Amino acid sequence: MDGSNIPIARLTLPEAAAERLRALITEGVLLPGAKLNERELCEQLGVSRTPLREAFRMLAGDGLLVQLPNRGAQVVALSREDARHAFEMMGALEGFAGERAAARVTEDDIAGLRRLQVEMEAAHARDDLPTYYRINRAIHDTLNTVAGNPVLTQTYRTLNARLHALRFRSNFNRAKWDQAVAEHRSMIEALAARDGAALRDLLVRHLHAKQQAVLETMKDQEVLGGTSL
Amino acid sequence: MDGSNIPIARLTLPEAAAERLRALITEGVLLPGAKLNERELCEQLGVSRTPLREAFRMLAGDGLLVQLPNRGAQVVALSREDARHAFEMMGALEGFAGERAAARVTEDDIAGLRRLQVEMEAAHARDDLPTYYRINRAIHDTLNTVAGNPVLTQTYRTLNARLHALRFRSNFNRAKWDQAVAEHRSMIEALAARDGAALRDLLVRHLHAKQQAVLETMKDQEVLGGTSL
DNA sequence: GTCTTGCATTTTGTATACAATATGCCAAAC
DNA sequence: GTTTGGCATATTGTATACAAAATGCAAGAC
To answer: Which of A54, A88, A154 sits opposite B149 (nearest CB)?
Structure first.
């Protein structure tokens, strides 16, 4: 026996419930601010209250739910300010990832990213937004992986899940899209040149643009129970 | 009624249990790698299993415990690598905090920090390590607060709690201490000059030094169930 | 008409009983 | 001597009953 003791991935009941809830939030069945009734959800998910409550705790830890004492859990609703802070943080995390990635990247990694870039540009050319999103995400995930810091990866994933789950979509238009694709090309070049500072800068700017696009769509949105974290 | 609906801070039972457990971990009563027996802890803390388990989930979310399905919870034991990654991340977070703080700092903030710096140098001069630690922490916390990003603050606090709870202490010596105090002086100057890039750089380097000091003490320490996150 | 007060109902919090799983030990097989 | 199988025990996982708290409504006071 060697040390690779990875048990067969068997979801525990609370984990499964959390996963299902996460999906319900992401799909927009449970909207931001919605309060979660334990008994109702128990019936819907077919689990009893104990594991459901453990699922609540997990999602609260991920920042998807807030739990108010004696008043149950509700889906977080980020205010404009909260969103601004979250994207600002994302910029910092991605910038750090880029910097580290530049220091550790291999030729194979670069080749893989170039392939993704080609696919991304093809999706862009044929206006295939879903594919574009998928590849975009793959590129950012790869950068993060290449950075080789699990603490970063964990933090990044959690924050990313939060932003995705809360349905922040940018106000898409052709000019911004073209710009984003161009930025990605520059990133790969900076990475290939192992220029960490430049890559960091590009990523921070890239996220800043995304932040602006998202904030535009939230222009005069009410606070709706906006909460910290 | 205005919107300041801050309820009287009344700790829920799971929160209280979590707090107590956190203390037990920080004080070293529960050592890294120790497995936590539910029944035992129930008796010790005077709560039943349900709230204790909720406390486990909370601490697991903070990265202080790992929960293995059907095998209970245990205190995380960070490997050398894990510690390296955590400190690297801390550097990135503090760097980001410094950058933002430089953009937002007020003259009052600077005055307050200068006062702390004087206190810190006094503690340093009289070899008062506990006070030094306390003020050091206050300075870093202030920088973080001035940065004005709650998402950052939350992440920073969680990671910091983890590093503290897991009892990472650096291999202290006079040269390193002198160096650290000098670095703090430079930081205040960079902040006063609103030079975000310089402050960021100083903080990253400062954390790197701390990382080195900690890693030295972990030189050839075994992995002991070292886990991710 | 508005504000308070008390009660019924709903919902959350905690304890505990029972079920499922893991652990350790001993005997039997190879 | 090592390995395998089966049991007894310990420990975790889940459901549920009961307790505590919050909510909503209606009746009465002002």
So the answer is: A88
Same structural domain for residues B211 and B111?
Answer: yes
Which of A7, A69, A82 minimises the CB distance to B12? A69
How many folded domains does chain B comprise? 2
Question: What letters, b where the CB count within 10 A reaches 16 and e where it falls short, cover B71-84?
Answer: eebbbbbbbbbbbb
Least confident of A6-15, A203-212, B196-205: A6-15
Question: CATH number for the domain including B64?
Answer: 1.10.10.10
Q: Which A residues 97-136 touch B at CB under 8 Å?
A: 100
Q: Is the predicted pLDDT of residue B220 greater than 60, yes or no?
A: no
B10, pLDDT greater than 70:
no
d(CA A64, CA A161) in angstroms, rounded, equals 9
B62 and B154: one domain? Answer: no
Residue type, A11: L
Is strand C less than 7 A from the beta carbon of A171? no
pTM: 0.89
Taking the C-alpha atoms of residue B215 and residue B229, their distance in angstroms, rounded to an integer, is 18
Could you tell me whether strands B72-75 and B35-36 are parallel, antiparallel, or unpaired per DSSP bridges? antiparallel
The pLDDT of residue A2: 44
Instruction: Fill in the DSSP letter of residue A166.
Output: T
- Do B39 and B101 have their domain in common? no
B54 lies within 8 A of chain A by CB: yes
Compare B177 and A220 and report the one with higher pLDDT: B177
CA distance A106 to chain B (A): 20
Residue B194 is assigned to a structural domain of this protein: yes
A158 contacts chain B (CB < 8 A) = no
Question: Do A31 and A60 fall within a single domain?
Answer: yes
Q: Is A205 on the interface with B (CB under 8 A)?
A: no
Instruction: State the residue range of the domain holding A184.
Output: 80-217
Query: When comparing pLDDT for A229 and B147, which is higher?
Result: B147
Measured between CB atoms, which of B7, B58, B92 is closest to A57?
Answer: B58
